[in-house]
Design brief:
This protein is an alpha/beta fold. The protein is built from five helices and five strands. The longest helix is centred in the first third of the chain and has 17 residues. The protein starts with 8 loop residues before the first helix and ends with a strand. 29% of the residues are buried.
Length: 120
Amino acid sequence: MVKLKKTNPKIIDLLENLKKSSYKEKAAIWKDVAKRLERSTRKQAEVNVSTINRHTSPEEIVLVPGKVLGSGKIDHKVQVAALSFSKLAQEKIGTAGGECLKISELLEKNPKGSGVRIIE
């Protein structure tokens, strides 16, 4: 079996930064996220806004190792970090008072990874 490697330089840099931060800060969450992002694109997470709404409470920090889609409603303020967002998902999260972040931005804001929930 041939192991496929990522070819997108931005994702490769992100994976390296996640692994370095995991080792440096002794935070296993970043190594876990890197492993999830190394999967093939077909197996990456696609999470709807309704799923985030159902599984979170207000003011929570959520990390999606994939794409956030705009199906459903969100009625409370959350910070969502993901690899990418659909336009509708960004609008709905912003309208609810939340914030959309890239995974690298969350890594800079919270290097220990404390209080972050991973949703797939």
